## 1
Amino acid sequence: MLPRSLGDLRKSSFSDPSYRTRTVKDEMRTNLVRRLQDNQPIFQGVVGYEDTVVPQVINAILSRHNMILLGLRGQAKSRILRGLTTLLDDAIPVITGCEINDNPFKPICRRCRDLVDELGDQTPIEYRSREERYVEKLATPDVTIADIIGDIDPIKAAKGGHAIGSELSVHYGLLPRANRGIFAVNELPDLAGKIQVGLFNIMQEGDVQIKGYPIRLPLDVVIVFSANPEDYTARGKIVTPLKDRIGSEIKTHYPVTLQHGVAITEQEAWIQRNSGRTILIPEFLKQVVEAIAFKARADQRVDKRSGVSQRLPITCLENVISNAERRAIVTREEYVVPRIADIYAALPAITGKIELEYEGELKGADTIARDLIRQAVQTIFRQYYPSTDFKQIIDWFEMGGNLKFSDLESASSMLSRLENVQGLLDRVDVLEVQRESPAALQVSAAEMILEGLHALDKISRSEERGFAASERKAAGASQELYRDYQMERNRYKKPLN
């Protein structure tokens, strides 16, 4: 049973001298050391930062630093900031009703000091959970000093019968309310310069002064920020003295490997649906979706300063599954298996996530998105089939064969037509799909092969004919036959007199 009065609190473990004087930074450091000793993960759900960002965050906490995370959009900055709460104690005692979570052993606000003087050991105690000790503010240009620090509240003074100059008339801002906890500011450059200046004291001296009141509050708080480095000139900047007061500057990044990206997307995307059908997502399709983001980040037509958020593959995969789910519902199929065609149906989840340079704007977002899908398919296809001979399949198309599929055609219908393509279904095992696998999986793998051959210009694909013989190759063959004809004709030409 937790103590509920100041007298009981003095008799409990909370009264230990080391606990009474411990700051929030000391608390986080102690809990972090314990977690490192027990070899426990520091942040849940953060993938790909194990050797880069996480060690730097750990060093900042061990150093008792305030910190800033710099990175483009969609790089898990907010998740890391919110994950810092796991390094706080489960609960801390505060004086009941205190707006700034006052330490019962050393209250700093006038209301709590008066209450302890009046009630002594009978002063009521309550507890704040770690989640309640995290205060976050999204920086916007309209944020004021009163929002962050506080101000004198005339209404509060009138209702309480206090003088305007009384400390009891103070309205506390978000920063004092984060006392004995963590205060996070997202998108710091958007905060007006004069508001950033208001943070100087708390960053260096550890106290703030409420506007119009001479008493300073010695707050105990960890301050963390996030910012997009490219926003410094686009929307604002971090004032130099404030930047100088931030202990550690940590740069985040996008997933370095395709495997990390796939793991993040699988973790964040809404994959398990309640449609009553079995959802099977081939691994190669997850990789193609992820490769779209990788290709976009490297494409010269996409704005690098804006970045390509990890939300692109997440929302794209969700849209892909939804299109496959729609098909399964219409055709009354048991399995929901996405195909490459479903990625093209998910263009709305791609085009809204990329900012284009001038060259890209001329071509249009849809054209760029389709090109990125084709590049992604080509990359993944080459990984699975680095040197496989597809001559048998290509010859089938060059002999006049073609395949056109409907977006809502059932897997069994498509499979019966795909079986006519010589050697096609014999290659799906490389994509970890067997001939005894559900028809929808075989169709998805076969379409991946066809789309891969199209990406390599071995066969063509159009809205009218679907998959067919390569137009470029056919044109090249025609030119070669014409040259052979001309050479043969010239051999039998009689010389002119």
Note: The chain has 24 helices and 15 strands.
## 2
Amino acid sequence: MRSAASPAAAPTAAPRAELMLLTGGNYMPFADRAWPEQGLAVELVSAALEASPSPVDFELDWEDDWGRHLFPLLDEKQSDMGFPWVKPDCAATPEAPRCSQFHYSDALMDLPIMLFTQAESDLTYESDADIAGLRLCRPGGLFTHDLDRAGRNWLSEGVIDLMQPATPEACFEALVSGEVDAVSVNVFLGAAKIVSMGLRGRVVPMDTPLSRETLHVVISKTHPRGTTHLYRINAGLAALRDSGQYNEIVSRHLETFWGRLK
């Protein structure tokens, strides 16, 4: 128990938990302080740590500027682990900073990346050959590795024109004005923007995902307890899947998400 400080004493900072987690808001249904349980990913990671061998005390730091998470906050170990992050194609680009400087946990969940087009568009996507010459939009700051991975090279070889405005809203505005042929974002973000921007009936997702990515917990490769913390997360996720709790958490959050869009 901490003793009472005298009037002249400086305030004492509260001790931090053994494991500090970092996430950010406005990423429904995965992380947001106003979402039930603060988000699907928050509940999954918390439950995994509680189910892991030798669990430790942990706390959650919130930083809504996602651009600060990897660098400097996690790279400088101001927080220990961050989530949820898409894992790049590190086999193809091991030198990329997100690959060379971070470890990734086992996947938290699958994330379909879709093409959203105007409802009256005659565009089809059955194979990558259908993409040649299109004008795509993806908000700046989001990953683009799926557009330029081995066998695609859409960016490096100029197969597509890519617009990267600051916000998802700007992408969908460009779509309805005819400036681009399709918007490429994850299925949850796209569906939410269609509803919030009043685009029902005007913008629709194509049937086939452009790519399937996975969400992960990340930790700096220079973290002194990196492998130990990763083991906790991975062992906890395996325990959740074995018990059926993983499916219960994911199903409940997805039902809430799609229900709110009706």
Note: The helical segments are 40-51, 69-74, 97-100, 168-176, 187-196, 226-243, 245-260.
## 3
Amino acid sequence: MRKGREMNKNVENEKQKSKEPRLGIALIPMIAMGLLLGVGYGIYQIKPQVLLVVAAFITGILGFILRFKWKEMERGIVDSIHQAMPAILIMLCVGILIGSWIASGTIPMVIYYGLKLISPRYFLLTACFVCSITSLATGTSWGTIGTLGVAFIGIALGLRIPLAPAAGAIVAGAYFGDKMSPLSDIPNLAVVAAGSNLFDHIKHMMWSGVPAWIIGLLIYFFAGFKYKGGEVENETMALITRTLKNNFRFNLLLLLPMVVVFYFAFTKKPTIPGMLLSSFVAGILAIIFQKASVSAVATAMNTGYQAQTGVPQVDQLISRGGMMSMMETQLVAFTAFSFGGIMQATGLLAVILDRVMKFANKVWSIVLTTVGSSIITALITGSSYLSMIIPGDLLSPVYKKKGLAAKNLSRIIEESGAIIVPLIPWSMAGVYIKGTLGVSAFSYLPWAVMNYTAVVILIIFGFTKFTMAPKIRDDETQIGS
């Protein structure tokens, strides 16, 4: 009888052993995903969500080989997505927020007065500063580069300022505003990947992002002395400001939606109610000041605001927002977390993390590992989204085990992943900027000071432990201190 029980126990142990993958097997899904994204997305421009489904399928096949049941892997997928749901819901609210803020005239007013700050004597400084404000208000670096960036390049040509520093200042400003804006998909996706809170993340990122931005502004200030100042006469810039003024009624009350969001953020109140209240206030302001119909406001919240000013540059800049605009970004998140969920359920991720932990056992080594994995993913995929999602999903357990807040991880993957991508010539951002501004990434890279200086600052923080916040709660998607 005892012998029979021992035999059954041995059988169970053998089954359990058969489920413990070796490192070589555990790396197969990661290598497959790297090849799929590097070739499929990087070369053939296949949608990343399709490639991530293929990677998840390959991982599932390995799971079956390792004798895991589909129910076990399905549970891993559901658990992984469940953990990301609070941040995904915030992304939907961001879409509503953008559409309502544009419809109310809040964002157009910020852009208008931002453009009025242009100083011809300090061109590089001004270009970076104005692009920062515009991108912060609109939540789009590409939209800022494609509109104001083109206008600033025209000014640079007129003032005989070299295009490399001009493009670098534009890119740095546009991406600074993008990464610090709660309206942008980049910080929203970073917090989904890391499991942190949006406003905690943005406030925490100020420690590295703002100093890097200021260093860049100082360099642009002193570098600008060797360029002769002159009167700026740029038809594009004048056309944008005139069109905004003619199509929107500006009033100080239009800043109320921003005040609501900032109040909820700094008083540490729930994020989603604050965003919805801000959107409601913006909708009321749109009806009062812009004479918009209730139906038009609702449409802007759902499918985005569609400008019809007759001026393509302005229409491109402010035609955006709505819940539907967030769908593709959320699909990338869902498919990435499906891949990660199977990796966790089958123990493949645990094997990799066990090896990672042997190196990343100190704060400085964890930071270096995160920075390195984000940059490598950015180089392979050329995608801002994937350079955050993949390292974030992989390393999130490491930060939890070491008692580090998730906002540390979301800050690092955004600044060493998404913000590095525009400096990579073969990335989608690098190709877009080259086609839009006519300057290659290799040329403007040294002048995009903010983009790479932030990474250096993060590494210093890793070695000194300065601003490396400890984990204070289990559910870090809720606002903390």
Note: Residues 70-104 form the longest helix (35 residues).
## 4
Amino acid sequence: MPQPPVFFADRAEIQRDLILLSGAEGRHAAAARRLRPGERADVGDGAGLVAECVVVAVHPGRGLELAVRARQELPRPDPVITVVQAIPKGDRGELAVAEMTEVGVDRIMPWAAARCVPVWRAERGARSLARWRVTAREAAKQSRRAWIPEVTELVSAADVAQVITKAACAIVLEPDAAQSLAHLSPPGSGDLVLIVGPEGGLTDEENAAFCTAGAIPCRLGPTVLRTSTAGTVAAAVVLSRSGRW
């Protein structure tokens, strides 16, 4: 039997016995998914609370009314997987965010690396960040996640170095690194940070700053991946070795 679709609503709404799924979520459920009375759906708040529901009524133009059968509070996954993602060109940023969300990344930090081609400034930066956040939300629905990944504000190399110092383990992806990520034993708890550079690679200054802060250089394999792909692959390797998968 296929699993029921997932939608998001405010925590206060989910705590009611009858949930009115309105707005864009309600329109998607009624028009695109064509849910009807008696069908199952799950409604979450994106922060761990999930309600198992049954559709009791469809209100054209308003959304769906759902009766709550049960609720569960799912803890935040541990270890927490953070990917520091150098900004890719074009729509590859949204592709990276979607794929990382699907595999289970918990936090995505857009990084203005020195060799990034795109530059996020003013309104352009705000629009790009908003697209990343919408992409993470939609991918979390598609992949049935109880927690929507956090997409932080744009960070600098100095910010990344600070994140590294506080992490239980930080890994900077380098194609020529001596150590393979597949042979690394990640910690079973805490913040695990993966740093993905731009297509042109990290500068010597960035690499030195990150290693000084405590990051471990690791390679993924014999081939060189695009920046929009490397984070997803690295996260999958780490998730499979950390006990999360």
Note: Residues 1 and 130 are 35 Å apart (CA to CA).
